[in-house]
Structure formats: structure tokens, C-alpha cells
Write a structure and sequence with these properties.
Elements: H1 3-13, E1 18-24, H2 33-42, E2 48-51, H3 62-73, H4 78-88, E3 96-99, H5 102-108, H6 110-119, E4 124-126, H7 139-144, E5 148-150, E6 152-154, H8 159-168, E7 173-176, H9 192-202, E8 207-210, H10 216-225, E9 228-231, H11 233-240, H12 244-252
Parallel strand pairs: 1-2, 1-9, 2-3, 3-4, 4-5, 6-7, 7-8, 8-9
Bound molecules: indole-3-glycerol phosphate.
Indole-3-glycerol phosphate binds next to β2 and β9.
Length: 261
Amino acid sequence: MNRIEQQFSKRLSNGEKLFIPYIMAGDGGLDVLGERLALLEEFGASAIEIGIPFSDPVADGPTIQKAGIRALQVGTTLRDVLDELKEVRPMISIPLIMMTYMNPIMAYGIEKFVSKCKLAGIDGCIIPDLPIEEEGMIVDQLEGAGIELIRLVTMTTPKDRIQKIAQKGRGFLYTVTVKGITGVRNEFNGDLSAFLKGVKESSSIPVLAGFGVSTPEQVKKLSRDCDGVVVGSKIVELFKEEKVSEIKHLIHSIKGTEIMK
Ligand SMILES: O=P(O)(O)OC[C@@H](O)[C@@H](O)c1c[nH]c2ccccc12
């Protein structure tokens, strides 16, 4: 069992739900990365998803695109992020999950990427433009380094494919709750609750819901049908506006969700 599975099963068996905040590495400068990770851990995050700035982030909405542009403008590179993570990792004990596209990984070199992730203490990778049919190009190397490839399913994924992906899944299954890109939303499709319950039935690993989640109410509602949530754009926005206490409030809203079942 790697750190993700270990720590998540501990929390879940205590009756807790999971909350994974996303941050863009290099937004605000790489100097703040370590303090932000430490703060998120202190606020109760179950793990942290770290985005790598990239010029063509096809799954990202405006908030994360802009955060990526800010990070690129101050010169952030994948190499710098990995070096910085290696320095700050000893301060953090929760799992760290890298979120990047295939192109920056290939430009950097798959082998070098995997070994540097291992040195930086990365526990999982989300690569949204890597379908299961293509994952052979990297999955064995990641697994060999003790890093889980986190697979995604969406509301348009056919049922048999969800099952196939869930069976292969490691760490947790990322369930995309919207038909579209990342970003804060006011409403979700009415069938979402049934969809999440269906994915949960297909999966023996934890199921987390992400995309469009930004309010304590949404956090509570969605986590009733699965094991927890991922929140990206809202966290990015709150860090930018220096509204740190709101981040704390949002993460704390996951607490007590099991009582509402
Ligand atoms: O920003 P949102 O709507 O809260 O969505 C999650 C999210 O940002 C993060 O998980 C993410 C950012 N970019 C991605 C690309 C693919 C999958 C997931 C992501």
C-alpha cells in the first residue's frame, strides 16, 4: 500500500471524508509553495494536488489557466517545481499528487520525470490527457517508483468503461462531475448523485468528486454520495486574494459530513 491508500483508508475508517485541495505550483512564486502546502495540511487536507503550469492546459478553465500563466510569467518550470518539492517535502506528511499533462512530461523525459518525482516524495500523478489505452508508456515506471497513476472517469464515460477504469484504479478514482472544464459552478447536473453512487459501486478504491466544487454546501452534498471532493479553482482564487481563513473554512466543511448521511 502506498501513502495515498494507507492514509485515505485510515481517515475513511475513522468515519472521515476526504478533501483534496489543488494549487498551481509557481503561482505567487515558488517560494510560497512550501508554506501553502504546510497550511493546507494544517487546515486538514487529506492530500494535496499540485498543478504544473503549462501553456496548453486543455482541461482547465479560466481561473486555473490564469494561475498557470502567472506561474509561467515568473519563470516556473517543471524542473524547478520538482527541485522545490524535494526541499519542502520533509515538512509535509500527507500525500502529494502531481497534476500535469503528458506534453511537459515527455519534453522533460519520462524516466527523469518519474525518478525526480520519487525523489520529491510524490505519491500520485493525475495526467488528464492520458487515456488508459495509452498509459503503458508510463504506468509501469510510476508504479515501480511507488507512485500511483490516478485515473479519471467522467459523466460521459460509458458504464463498461467506468468499470474497466475502476478495476485498474489505484490510490483513488477521480470522478469529474461536469461535462466541461475546471472552474467554479453554481449548479450540477441533476443526475450527479445517482452517477456518483454508480461509480462508487463499481470501485473498490475511494471515489472523489471534482470539478466545479466551491462552496461548503456543495462539499457536503457531493461527499454524501462518494468518499470526498477535490477543489481547485476556488482554492487558487482564495490564495490569490489572500483569503486564507476562507480556505480553512472550506476544508473544515468536509467534517461532520458522515453524520448527515
Ligand atoms: O477547479 P475545479 O473546478 O475545482 O476542478 C478541480 C481541479 O481544479 C483540479 O483537480 C484540476 C486542475 N486541472 C485539472 C485537469 C484535469 C483534472 C483535474 C484538474
